[in-house]
Amino acid sequence: MKSNVLFFLGLFAALLISWEGIVLGSNAQLGSLAPYYDDNQGGSFPQRMPGSAARGQLVYRDLGCAACHTQQVRRPGFGFDQARGWGDRQSVARDYIYQPWPQLGLSRVGPDLANLADRKPAPPGEDELYRALYAGSEGMPSYRFLFEERRVGSGAQGSDVALKLSGADRRAAGVEIVPAERARSLVAYLLSLRTTYDYPESFPFVPAPPEGAAAPKPAAPAAPAPPDKAGGPK
Amino acid sequence: MKTEVTASDSSSRNPPLLLLLMALGWLVAGGLLGLVASIQLHSPRFLDGCPLLTYGRVGALAETAFVYGWLANAGLALALWVLGRLAGEPLRAQNWALAGAVFWNVGVAAALVGVATGDATGFALLGLPGYVHLILFFSYSAVAVSGLLAWSGRLRQVSYASHWYAAGALFLFPWILSIAHVMLFSAPVHGVVQSIVAGWYAQCAWTLWLAPLALAVAYYVIPRATGRVLASYEFATLGFWCLIFVGGLTGGRHLLGGPVPAWIPSVAVVSSALLLFHTFVVLLNLRGGFSGAGTAVRFIAFGIAAYVLGAVVDAATCFHAVAAHTQFTFFDEAQRQLALYGAASTIFFGGIYFAVPRMTGKAWLSGGLVRAHLFLSVAGILLLAGSLAGAAAVQGRDLANSAVAFPEIVRHTRPWLVAATAAQAALLLGNISFFVNFVGTACRIMNVSEPAVFDPPRAMEAPAP
Question: N or C: which end of chain A has fewer CB within 10 A?
């Protein structure tokens, strides 16, 4: 290579191709994805996050929760996501359009959270999430710095949201553990995570079986669910 | 072989030595953070009361210190040294490089403070908060000016493979960073496109920035240190352009099965397989390193082996049948360590062992510390990648069986993760000995009474057993 100009033009062209192809290409396809309007339900989906949940997403991001938790359910037939009750359908790009910072994640040291508020068999409640964050577990650190320890004067009424702890974490009478503002936002965010609405694109295309062959056991509903059957948020 | 020390070595040594000092400082700091993260992975209670060191942040801190502290500084230092030597005259714009080196490290330090106090981004390989991008962009460009002037002002018109890789990395990184900054921070794209941009950035940071920096060093040092010309050198051009053109297209590698259009991971599958051509050329060209002697060559040969293995594994895990077992497990971390530590870092280690005696005109302070570093690095990397892959196998099997709950998965993977912690500790120990040896050697420049050892060149490298 003798020409400096050609060399740098080549480098630039290579970068331009991958940027144009991968980044701008996907942005053209997905960047202006609109919510899906459902006539029968009289509303559009996904719905915007409430303000407290949007604040919670910032807490989620700044604590690096995505280091251990993904927020993407893979399609039936690829992986184990449905068997673990993380979601009946795959996550689609439309699920994320109102998230300012989608946290898809790369690692499942802990469970997937894309559809936490509708997890099978039973979604966790608010108390359960607070306790999990406060006490931690074998595989998850505790986040005590998101909670406040407060004294309750004798005869005074304790906080409604004080944690009901048992075992080693139990506090003496007159002391209560209350989630701080960040913990409340985080839990509000976690409880807002639900992908229950079935978009037309959320079921993968399943080719019809060839003539004479036995129909394979469908791993997913074979046809896109018509909007009138789709379950809105419960 | 006549003396290999050129006049340009001593007159252009200040920017590379400053960058290397910073690099090794970050290497030790990043190793400490990596050790903490590794302990927390099997014992989550470790330091969990400290909000600055909660696992999600420590992992991002360790990665940032390692990539932008150690790899970037060391790669820049060696690229400047290689380009300066190939130019055949002292580096120009050294003040730019020195100022750039200082501000780059100020930027990295600010990034670490930002991540620790709550400005993490949650993107892999781009944990840098948005506000440090500008300083990193300008300081990197300032350092690159010096290297690119050495490229354009070279005395001979021909250029070599190490030229292309070094100049390519110096030129491309500011573009990649600025694109990521605009599309993720100053005018963020919507929804999952952010994940696509972040994935594209992470792959480009490897294929268009860190891997070329490492290859520049390998292509320069191997023929010099073995005294043989590169085998099949006529293919090197193809190998280079294959990496540059195809590397950026592997951006959707991690999005397999994710909420993105299927063509993105499909392009990544094809590109990863195409990239094997580049890997094959690298192996073909640099195979002389495997039979070479000397510390520098041994480090680099290990790095080349890790590079080739990593590329093969990357291509394999793109396929659905393999990804069904490895996706979202520790295997990803094993691959990352194999690439960033096994390939890039060991090649940089070898380059530093080769370059520093030539820059300073002094032999390494201690041969024992060099041998300890070689042993601890090789053993540590093999153990680290192996134990993470073992943990991934257990985790992949358990995850696929929905009857196994998460606490049980933690129990099953714990022995492997403890082994990974031991590996991190061994690597940290090796890197501390490297740091001590480097500082001691660099301090010898001040000691004027000691005679400079210029000849024979072999003795100036770390003593080979």
Answer: C
Q: Is residue A233 part of a domain?
A: no
Whether the Cβ atoms of residue B289 and residue B226 lie closer than 8 Å to each other: yes
Residue whose tokens read 């994640």: A105
Three-state SS for A45? strand
* Tokens (6 digits) for A88: 């009946």
Beta bridge partners of A44: A37
B124 and A CB contact within 8 Å: yes
Q: Assign a CATH topology to domain B7-460.
A: Cytochrome C Oxidase; Chain A (1.20.210)
Amino acid at the residue B220: Y
pLDDT tens digits along A172-201: 778 889 999 999 999 999 999 998 888 988
Q: Which residues contact residue A156 at a Cβ distance below 8 angstroms, ignoring those fewer than 6 apart? A: none
Which amino acid is present at B353? Y
Predicted local distance difference test score (pLDDT) of residue B3: 41
Residue A13 lies in a domain: no
Calculate mean pLDDT across residues A6-25: 94
Q: What is the mean pLDDT of chain B?
A: 91
Q: What pLDDT was estimated at residue B447? A: 65
Q: What is the pLDDT of residue A213?
A: 56
Return the SS3 of A29.
helix
Contact of B56 with chain A, judged by CB distance below 8 Å, is answered with yes
User: CA of B405, closest CA in chain A: separation in Å?
Assistant: 9
Instruction: Please answer whether residues A89 and A198 qualify as being in contact, where contact means their C-beta atoms are separated by less than 8 angstroms.
Output: yes
CB-CB: which of A23, A78, A101 is closest to B320?
A78
DSSP 8-state secondary structure symbol assigned to residue B18: H
Cβ-contact B275, B247 below 8 angstroms: yes
Q: Which of A132, A217, A79, A145 is nearest to B407 (CA)?
A: A132
Q: What are phi and psi of B140, to 5 degrees?
A: -65, -45
Find where tokens 């420049």 sit. Answer: B445
Q: What is the pTM of this model?
A: 0.91
Residue A206 has what pLDDT? Answer: 61
Residue ranges in chain B modelled with pLDDT below 50: 1-3, 451, 453-465
Q: Cα B174–B180–B181 angle (5° rounding)?
A: 85
**What pLDDT is attached to residue A209?**
63
B353 token code pair: 């062992």
Q: What is the spatial distance between Cα B299 and Cα B238, in angstroms, rounded to a whole number?
A: 25
The C-alpha atoms of residue B335 and residue B329 are separated, in whole angstroms, by 11
**In terms of residue numbers, what domain contains A71?**
43-203
Which pLDDT score is estimated for A15? 95
Residue A35 lies in a domain: no
- Count structural domains, chain A: 1
| Alpha-carbon span B67 to B403, nearest angstrom | 38
Spatial distance between the Cα atoms of B190 and A31, rounded to a whole number of angstroms: 6
State the best of B179, B195, B319 to mutate against chain A, taking most chain A CBs within 10 Å. Answer: B195
Copy the structure tokens of residue B132: 């440090």
Q: What pLDDT score does A210 carry?
A: 65
A218 pLDDT more than 70: no
| A10 pLDDT tier (thresholds 50, 70, 90) | very high
Residue A52: which CATH number? Answer: 1.10.760.10
Asked, for residue A12, whether it belongs to a domain, the answer is: no
User: In the prediction, which pLDDT does A207 show?
Assistant: 60
- Among B390, B400, B50, B419, which residue's Cα sits nearest to residue A108? B400
Bigger pLDDT: A206 vs B395: B395
The nearest alpha carbon in chain A to B399 belongs to: A80
Strand partners, A147: A179
Neighboring chain A residues of B48 at a CB cutoff of 8 Å: 136, 141-144
For residue A170, the 8-state DSSP code is: P
What is the per-residue pLDDT across A57-98, written as a single tens digit (0 to 9) for each?
999 999 999 999 999 999 888 888 999 999 888 999 999 999
